[in-house]
Amino acid sequence: MANKKLLILAGDGIGPEVMSQVLRVVDWLAKKRNLVFDISEGLVGGCSYDKFGTPLSDQTLEAALAADAVLLGAVGGPKWDSLPFEVKPERGLLRLRKDLKLFANLRPAFVFDALAEASSLKTELVTGLDIMIVRELTGGVYFGEPRGIETLPNGERRGVNTQVYTTSEILRIAEVAFELAKKRGNKVHSVEKANVMESGLLWREEVQKLRDAKYPEVALEHMYADNCAMQLVRNPKQFDVIVTDNLFGDILSDCAAMLTGSLGMLPSASIGAADAKGNRKALYEPVHGSAPDIAGRDIANPLATLLSFAMMLRYSFDMEEDALLLEKAVKTVLDGGLRTGDIMQPGKAKVSTSVMGESIVRELNKLV
Ligand code: NAD
């Protein structure tokens, strides 16, 4: 079988530092598990602007389209803040997501026992928490037409955005959620505002129809978005998979993420439609940004990027065993008391980015 093609885009700020730790694991997989990837590296964001005058060059975009999966660090920083909107580093990332047609954003909210105390909720509410939020990424009110700001005849200004979803957009995201649920806790909460929005009512009806026709074994509950926000902080462990639209997903995934207490620990995946062979384009990235305040000091937490890589092994390459090994290594290192500064707790050992990466590889060696 041909090697899997992996494009690495480390980006700006702490991106290259955290990505170096992933490359240690890639090396380890080649040496110890005989898993060799065809790796290419490219520029995106501010570093791409500096070299090519654009945050995403055609060359990088082509490489992304040709890759089996893309792993991205982070983009942006004060150096590029005053650039025109179209060439800001973040535009490169948005264009990448758009051109890869990534319509589903997967954001796990998983609490490692060793870090349960970092949550703003009571420890017992979050210990063992494992939620997957599936957010629709390319439709809804962020893209709907008509949109804009107009001046009315009476001089008043009026801003308009349109929430719009079609059956096929709803079905393809719901399918992703049901398929994930089958491999997890077999439960989906579909979240909308069917009580006040027609698009929400359509969403509810279509998700229910799909479940009845294709996924009768998966438990489905419908929930209004406002109630979901409340339930996430009241009793988050009731959820397994949450599927929701672009706007509600934007808000609820950030809310769920913070239940885990640390930005440096949160991975994510964005995936596209399956091609004729069933392969999907996919982009994996930590939820955090380029953290310019700590960049270049070897103190950033690499675990969100390593956990994003574990998601890639699982979802793009079907390497469940290796994904689990990496997640177990992260858990063991945390249980052993090693912490980067952002997740430091009293009595634990503060380590650098590179020592954290080395420790993960050391743990992997013990596990295999
Ligand atoms: P940020 O996530 O970069 O940082 C927020 C805070 O969290 C900072 O104090 C930072 O030091 C800390 N932090 C973040 N990741 C960390 C890690 N791995 N280890 C330790 N500490 C970590 O968000 P911001 O400060 O709002 O944005 C900084 C830049 O990143 C901006 O240019 C922004 O546009 C960009 N950004 C990019 C992405 C992305 O690439 N996907 C996402 C968000 C922000």
List the defining traits of the structure above.
single chain; 368 residues; alpha/beta; Isopropylmalate Dehydrogenase; 2 domains; 10-stranded mixed beta sheet; two-stranded antiparallel ribbon; 12 helices; globular; binds nicotinamide-adenine-dinucleotide
CATH architecture of the largest domain: 3-Layer(aba) Sandwich
Q: Give me the CATH superfamily of the largest domain.
A: Isopropylmalate Dehydrogenase
Rg of Cα set: 21 Å
Give the low-pLDDT segments: none
What is the strand arrangement across the widest sheet? 2-1-3-12-11-4-5-10-8-9
Work out the number of β strands: 14
- Helix content class: 40-55%
Number of domains: 2
Number of helices: 12
Structural class assignment = alpha/beta
Could you please say which CATH topology of the largest domain applies here? Isopropylmalate Dehydrogenase
Small-molecule binders here are: nicotinamide-adenine-dinucleotide
- Give the percentage of residues in beta strands: 15-25%
Order of helices and strands: EHEHHEHEHEEEHEHEHEHEEHHEEH
Q: Termini distance? A: 24 Å
Question: What is the general shape?
Answer: globular
Architecture blueprint of SSEs:
Elements lengths: L3 E8 L3 H18 L4 E6 L3 H7 L5 H9 L2 E6 L14 H11 L2 E9 L12 H4 L3 E7 L11 E4 L5 E4 L6 H16 L4 E6 L5 H17 L4 E6 H10 L6 E4 L1 H14 L7 E8 L5 E7 L16 H13 L4 H16 L2 E2 L9 E2 L2 H15 L1
Helix pairs in contact: 1-10, 1-12, 6-7, 8-9, 10-11, 11-12
The structure holds nicotinamide-adenine-dinucleotide.
The site of nicotinamide-adenine-dinucleotide has 21 residues, from α4.
